[in-house]
Amino acid sequence: MNNEKNNRMKQLEDKFEQAKKEPWAKKLRIGTGVLWNLFILLLIFAVIGGVFASSVGAGYFASLVAKEPLRSKEELRDQVFTYEETSEMYFADGVYLGKINSDIERRQITLDKVNQYAIDAVLATEDEYFAEHKGVVPKAIFRGVFQDVTNSDSQTGGSTLTQQLVKNQILTNEVSYERKAKEILLAMRLEHFMTKDEILEAYLNIIPYGRDVMGQNIAGIETAARGIFGIKAADLSLPQAAYIAGIPQAPYTYTPFYSKNQGIKEREKLMYGVNRMKTVLFRMRDAGYITDAEWKEAKAYDVTKDFRQPSRRATERYPYVTQEIQNRTIEILAEVLAEKDGIDADRFEGDSKIKEKYEIMADRSMRTDGYRIYSTINKELYDKLNEVANNFQYYGYTYTSQSVDEESGKTITTENPVQVGAMMLENHTGKILSFVGGRDYELEAMNHSTQAYRENGSSMKPLLVYAPAIEYGVIGAGSPLVDVKFRRGSYAPANYFDRELGVLPARESLARSQNLSTIRLYDQIIDRNPIDFLKKMKFSNATDREGSGLAASLGTMDVSVEENTNAYATFANGGQFIQSYMIERIEDMDGNIIFEHKAEPTEVFSPETSYIITDMMRDVLKGNGTAARLPGLMNFRPDLAAKTGTSQQYGDAWLVGYNPNVSLGVWMGYKERTTPLYHGYNSGQMHPSERTARLYAQLMNTANTVIPDTIKARDTFKRPNGVVTRSFCGISGLAPSKACAAAGLVRSDLFNSKKMVPTKVDDSIVSSSAVRVNGRLYRALASTPREFVTSGGIGVTTEYGKRMLGRLGGDASKLLAGRGAYSNSVAGSTFPANNVPPAAVSAGQNGSVLTWTGSSSNDVIGYYIYQNGVRIGTVRDGASRSYKIGYGSYYVRAVDITGLLSGPSNTVTNAAPAPKPEPKPNTNSGTKPGTTTPEAKPDAKPQTNTESKPETTPEATPEPKPETKPDATPEPKPDAAPAAKE
Predict the structure, then answer these.
(1) Distance between CA 172 and CA 140 in Å, rounded?
(2) Using CA atoms, how far apart are residues 745 and 731, in angstroms rounded to an integer?
(3) What is the mean pLDDT of the chain?
(4) Which residue in 540, 529, 384 sits closest to 464, CA to CA?
(5) What pLDDT score was predicted for residue 829?
(6) Percent helix, percent strand, percent coil in the chain, to nearest 5
């Protein structure tokens, strides 16, 4: 048998040797050798490439985690197990307010109190290799990276429970490779420091689970069990556990409830979560956690019948205060944390990513680190002021609108009331004592005293125009300003009442809130960048661009109530700006102070300027001031300075004021600024300034009752030594001249002696003869008929008009027209006569009174009255167009400023009554024929109208006889050419 086998082997070897000698065999050996060598070479390259790629990957990974501090075991465990040590808030003086609001409701639970179905559902759905891996699953990471690099539509993720725990408790949610690399590193470290049960317990306490029955965001499996099903996590059934375990993949899609306590979703939207539950059950069966029978029974179960029924959510008592304290605490803690990490303030403010990162960290710290946060809000004052605001009855109309909720598809009716924001500050410290955030937090969760930015209208005028002008030495309190219209391109502003007041004192301009004079004053100082004053007072929107246009002087910049009120407190502080604040200090759980507010005053205005502008704003509450109504509404009399403001089309209404100790600002307006507060005098609505005055008074009255020791109603503003009273010429602002004094135009008012007092003597006044045209006085011409001229008036030079109107220009004739003490003054410009005879008039008769229409020409100074072709009277412009007449024929001619006459009007004839017939001779008398009776003497003159002469009033004087007029020329006949002058 062996010989036979050996023979067979020898035969095979012979055949193989013979085949090797064949040509094709030789070629096969050569080809095989080449392929083998190539394979070896490729294998070498693959190994080298793999090593290189691994090195590069490792190096890149190392660069990503280079700045990650090496956290100790204790530090990592503390961060993971610190779910939430809730911080507490306090009112002023340590009065307890409550716990910090959490964005997510959470109940802590230990692993032994969680139903096993819930644990299995989480593991089967979120991390099937949890028991085996060391923090990460490499193939899942590579899959995730590949999907990200290729921008795959399918993004399956690659995070283990450990990674998710690290992301939620230690890192932030930012999307970046750096964060992912740190997550991987920390997850592997965490697996060394914690057991699997500890990691799983921590995960079940921190993972988000959508919303509960009241629409509150929830986290943690115990909170989810209670909030969704109304039971403990230990009592969850299999379908309930599977439903909850499926929620974290898309919390707000799979949660069964809407936000804001709007109730349970519709059936079709609930099916998203139900289908997700079935997916979880399928994975549990495949992983062997449940049997096939359990799977079939659970997936057929109607879990929707187990959902909790909607219930009313308890409304927080202080939502605005809580929100504001939390927001400000986050800002403070972000800066504290950044400073600890060596981030300087400029970099922190200039780099949005760094700021966002630290704000996320600060938010988490505030909610989990157990701080004690002490605010400046006086609880009693806050309660009382908000009670006043809630009960105020004069806000105005509440609109309603309907919209469709994007999430639920329901039609929602929304109220749109007049909103309100108010704030009271302590001047010398900057403490926010109290505020009013709005009408209804549930309706609009915006604090209208701190977060709403609206145009502040005329309340900007003292801040941006008048105080800077005083500080620059351009005006004193009573310096004359020009309230005359102008046009610059398409910009043609007007006053609230469309009337020009000509020259008026600065304090009157501010008290009346005149727009034209304010804009002109701003034009005088705009090149000095008065916007810098607003920057010093921390107006967030104060930029050079905002201050570059003339309209900025009227308050077109958006500001908050806090900013506006804080700026006014600067005047009360003698020009020192002290930043308003609400957080007094923050302590950690051990009582260590980690933050305490320190005031850092900034000098904005001088004490002299601050006092002068304060004195000017006292006039806002008097006489013709826009807030003159306010003192009568208050039950005490503080030394108060204030200013009103309304924006375009009554979109906003403001009243801001202060006494030496506190400042109070009030704003009203609709949510949409295009909705007006007021529709005019005929609308039957209360004017917005009246509304703000009423609310302001009620708030101040209440504050004086609650905190009288802070208000100190009897305190008054102290006048600095640098504020002096000086006399000046009222129409020019220069030092009084003899001519100004003789004209009675000298005024006295306050000046900042360190900046400007009147020294140059006025040279603008000259004596003048005036004539009235269309109700205004103008300088008479040489050809103006004397009977229309008023002598002994005063006039001003042409240079005066140019100087006062400045580069904006305007009509100089309006400077001194019709303004009280200036009513006898004549503007510097001459009326622009057109040298064309005026248009004729039409005459009529009313009994024994001649009447006529006004001439349509614009240069008429009066009218001549003629009887039977002879001029008998003169009526000046402005007087009644009527004249008493006797018997005869009458007509009227218009006279212009140059002396030209119009053509005669139509003739009006007032005929004498027919004479009585003579009596027949009495033949029985002894009278001789041809003699007259005593009643009809032959030399008796015809009866004439003894009242034909006009009344000697200033505007209708008796006409002198033609022959006695020194420069008279023969009176033309009625049909003579009308161009003749007299």
Answers:
(1) 21
(2) 7
(3) 84
(4) 529
(5) 58
(6) 40, 20, 40
Which H or E run includes 792? strand 790-796
For residues 234 and 222, give the distance between their C-alpha atoms in angstroms, rounded to a whole number.
Answer: 8
Q: How far apart are alpha carbons 372 and 293 in whole angstroms? A: 54
Nearest to 92 by CA among 598, 449, 431: 431
- Encoded amino acid at 539, one letter: F
User: Where is pLDDT greater, at 180 or 328?
Assistant: 328
Q: Say which DSSP state 606 is in.
A: -
Phi, psi of 92 (to 5 degrees): -65, 155
State how far Cα 589 lies from the chain centre.
Answer: 39
pLDDT at 29: 63
User: How, if at all, do strands 372-375 and 88-90 pair?
Assistant: parallel
Amino acid at 126: E
Note the pLDDT tens digit of each residue in 645-686.
999 899 999 999 999 999 999 999 999 999 999 998 888 899
At 706 the three-state DSSP class reads helix
Tokens linked to 215: 């629409």
Give the residue ranges of DSSP H helices in 573-687: 607-618, 630-633
Longest dimension (CA), the chain: 214
Find out whether 693 and 629 touch, Cβ atoms under 8 Å: yes
For residue 189, the model assigns a pLDDT of 82
Specify the length of the chain in residues: 982
For 408, the 3-state DSSP assignment is: coil
Ranges of H-type helices in 795-904: 798-805
Residue 716 has pLDDT above 80, yes or no: yes
- Indicate the pTM of the whole model: 0.66
Using DSSP, state whether 198 is helix, strand or coil: helix
184-193, 270-279, 329-338, 421-430: segment of lowest average pLDDT = 184-193
- At 271, which helix (H) or strand (E)? helix 267-286
> How do strand 765-773 and strand 480-483 relate by DSSP bridges?
unpaired
C-alpha triplet 520, 521, 526: angle, nearest 5°: 95
Residue 812 pLDDT exceeds 90: no
pLDDT interval class at 135 (50, 70, 90) = confident
Token output for 887: 């018997």
Residues in CB range of 57: below 8 A, 6 or more apart: none
Q: Which residue has the higher pLDDT, 497 or 938?
A: 497
Q: Do 854 and 862 form a contact (C-beta atoms < 8 A)?
A: no
**Is 883's pLDDT higher than 50?**
yes
Contact (Cβ atoms closer than 8 angstroms) between residue 719 and residue 437: no
Query: 350-374, pLDDT tens digit by residue?
Result: 888 899 999 999 998 998 787 999 9
- Give the DSSP letter string of 531-581: HHHHHHTT-TT--TTTTSSGGGGG--SEE-HHHHHHHHHHHHTTTEE---B
CB 655 within 8 A of CB 666: yes
Radius of gyration from C-alpha coordinates of the chain: 47
Measured between alpha carbons, how far is 795 from 817 in angstroms, rounded to an integer? Answer: 11
User: What pLDDT band is residue 177 in, cutting at 50, 70 and 90?
Assistant: low
* Beta-carbon count within 10 A of 701 CB: 15
**Listing from the earlier edge strand, what are the strands of the sheet with 790-796?**
776-779, 765-773, 790-796, 825-826
Report how far residue 420's alpha carbon sits from residue 432's, in angstroms, rounded to the nearest whole number.
17
Determine which helix (DSSP H) or strand (DSSP E) holds 79, and give its type and residue range. Answer: helix 73-81
User: Could you report the per-residue pLDDT of 593-616, keeping only the tens digit for each?
Assistant: 999 999 999 999 999 999 999 999
The answer to whether 614 and 656 are in contact (CB under 8 A) is no
Q: Which of 208-222, 517-531, 551-565, 708-722 shows the lowest per-residue confidence on average (mean pLDDT)? A: 208-222
Return the structure tokens found at 908.
């009006």
Mean pLDDT of 770-792: 84
Predicted pLDDT at 70 = 60
> How far is C-alpha 362 from the geometric centre of its chain's CA atoms?
28
The 3-state DSSP class for residue 476 equals coil
Q: Please state, in angstroms and rounded to a whole number, the distance separating the CA atoms of residues 944 and 963.
A: 22
